[in-house]
Amino acid sequence: MKIAHIILVHNKPHQLQRLLMAIAHPNAVSFIHIDKKCRMDDFSFLTKLDNVIVVSKRIDVTWGGFSIVRAILASINEISRYRYTFDYVNLISGQDYPLKSPAVILDYLYKHPGRIFMDYFLPGHRWLEDLKFKLFKYHLTDYKFKGSTRLEQYLSRILPSVSIPKDFVLVGNSGWFTLDWESASYLLQFFKNNRSFVRKFLFSWGSDEYLVQSILYNSPLRGKIINDNLRLINWKEGNASPSIFTSKDEAKLLNSEKLFGRKFDLHVDEKIFDCLDKAIEIRKL
């Protein structure tokens, strides 16, 4: 069982270093996508680590923009060129952290071969109602400039709404996932062979939360999907981003059956990292 971790990073090199130590395993390779806005000097330590690859195609990523999808695809493409293939591809951010040891994570995936782990809501759910704004209006999120918001409003008013095939079911929720290699390869081919369809999402908002999920849900691979992305995420209603886990959440994190937690901040609470590392080490014994 071999796993490729995709880690999307835009800051916090010291926290990334700690994350890489926590997920290190002979059968795991980490592919790091570093936001094009970042200084590579801050991440020079990566060249000294085993089983760590810096994704060669760096994307200037904007939160909510299609650029996140571009970064994910660039990373999967980098994995496809690696010297051997993987059983699973796991997408995390530099602010995620494992709740289980690397061996336990690999064993879990070994016991669930050929699956797609992702979170999604089906049509009719309140979350998907927001797609009327996110997808069917025009957003210049990746192209911010003075007056861009006003231009977005103008374009949304004069241009026809984005249309997608009626038989294409939109699903979505969290943008983080764990895919078997067949599914990851399917995504690469889909984006290559369906450029006109993909272009419909270029000016959407938050496409990373529903485009990949919808493509896989509408594919012949739907039967492989498990509606669980294996992440513990602390959402508070009304917040655009999940809350930071701290030492107050120790019991919740240690008792969770999830494989990863999202999200953490070394500068907010370093103690919780120590607690997780210690618990994982004890459970190995």
What is the strand and helix layout of this fold?
Blueprint lengths: L2 E7 L3 H11 L4 E7 L17 E3 L12 H14 L7 E6 L2 E3 L3 H9 L5 E3 L7 H4 L1 H4 L13 H11 L18 E4 H13 L1 H5 L11 H7 L7 E3 L3 E3 L16 H6 L4 E3 L8 H14 L1
Parallel strand pairs: 1-2, 1-4, 2-3, 6-8, 9-10
Antiparallel strand pairs: 4-7, 5-10, 6-7
Helix pairs in contact: 2-7
How is this structure best summarized?
By secondary structure, the chain is α/β, with parallel strands linked by helices. The chain has helices at residues 13-23, 67-80, 102-110, 126-129, 131-134, 148-158, 181-193, 195-199, 211-217, 250-255, 271-284; strands spanning 3-9, 28-34, 52-54, 88-93, 96-98, 116-118, 177-180, 225-227, 231-233, 260-262. It has 11 helices and 10 strands.
Helix content: 25-40%
Apparent shape: globular
Q: Any idea what the CATH architecture is?
A: Alpha-Beta Complex
- Alpha-carbon Rg, integer: 19 Å
- CATH fold call: Spore Coat Polysaccharide Biosynthesis Protein SpsA, Chain A
Structural class assignment: alpha/beta
Largest sheet: 7 strands, mixed
- The total beta strand count reads 10
Percent strand: 5-15%
Q: Give the oligomeric state.
A: single chain
The CATH class designation is Alpha Beta
Mean pLDDT: 94
Total number of distinct structural domains: 1
Q: What is the helix/strand order?
A: EHEEHEEHEHHHEHHHEEHEH
Order of strands in the sheet with the most strands? 3-2-1-4-7-6-8
Distance between termini?
21 Å
Number of continuous helical runs: 11
> Low-confidence runs (pLDDT<50, min 5 residues)?
none
